[in-house]
Specification:
binds zinc ion, alpha/beta, about 250 residues
Length: about 250
């Protein structure tokens, strides 16, 4: 089975459309959360995401926007974007956000694989570095965990008691590229497909991944998108300008 993995779209419709246009054939779409927050097209991104399938886990921004958690823990820019998003969303889309499941999610046909927003230990935990990855890799009984939340594309591999971080290497800064990451049997993995709508690894291109469970390969992708339109929408919506400029920097 081939699963298209989308995470942290953050209301960036232009980035989402570019990923869908560049994606190879897939059987299912799995969305790892933070569908909304930051960007200027929340209703459009929810509706497009819902058309793609039924596999979702909720992100912290999804929870904040629909009132499941308090925005007092958010930084001022994120909190402002969250209230703006809440005011934009239709009642139906707010209800839909509220109904999203908490991970870990497992999917029939993808054995020994689970999907979370933050980590298998806690849905809002950030797995940024090797130190963060140790406990989730040791504790989880499942071999492959796909996660989001950090907006950093790459993987953590547990081999014996050693954890190694791998970030895909790309050759350009402006073209569609992919990087194959074959999974070895008997090792345990935490894999982040990257953020569709707000990458933070210094590469402005939208990130996603495709997991081919039969071949045991994760293909990471980076895709240029119409950054100018996404930025103009943010500025026209009177969202903080920082949310537009950071997209160009990939930070
Ligand atoms: Zn996010």
């Amino acid at each position: 089975m081939r699963a298209l993995l989308l995470s942290d779209i953050h209301s960036n419709l232009e980035a989402l459309e570019a990923c869908l246009a560049a994606a190879p054939a897939y059987d299912v779409v799995v969305n790892l959360g933070d569908i909304v927050g930051y960007g200027a097209s929340p209703n459009e991104v929810i509706e497009r995401s819902r058309e793609l399938g039924k596999f979702f886990v909720r992100g912290n921004h999804d929870k904040a926007v629909c009132g499941l958690i308090d925005i007092k823990d958010f930084n001022p820019v994120a909190a402002l974007a969250s209230s703006w998003t809440r005011n934009q969303l239709t009642e139906e889309n707010l209800d839909w956000l509220r109904s999203l499941p908490q991970g870990p999610l497992q999917i029939e046909g993808l054995s020994d694989t689970q999907f979370v927003h933050g980590s298998p230990i806690h849905e809002d935990e950030y797995v940024v570095n090797v130190g963060d990855a140790v406990a989730p890799l040791l504790v989880s009984p499942i071999t492959i965990t796909f996660f989001g939340h950090t907006h950093l594309q790459g993987s953590f591999t547990l081999s014996g008691d050693h954890v190694e971080a791998v970030h895909p290497a790309y050759r350009t800064v402006g073209q569609i590229e992919s990087s194959q990451f074959p999974l070895k049997k008997d090792l345990r993995y935490l894999v982040n497909p990257g953020s569709v709508g707000q990458p933070r690894d210094g590469d402005w291109r939208a990130g996603f991944a495709v997991f081919d469970s039969d071949a045991g390969i994760v293909a990471f992708y980076r895709v240029p998108y119409n950054l100018k339109i996404a930025q103009d929408r943010i500025l026209a919506a009177d969202l903080p300008a920082r949310l537009a400029t950071r997209l160009a920097a990939g930070r």
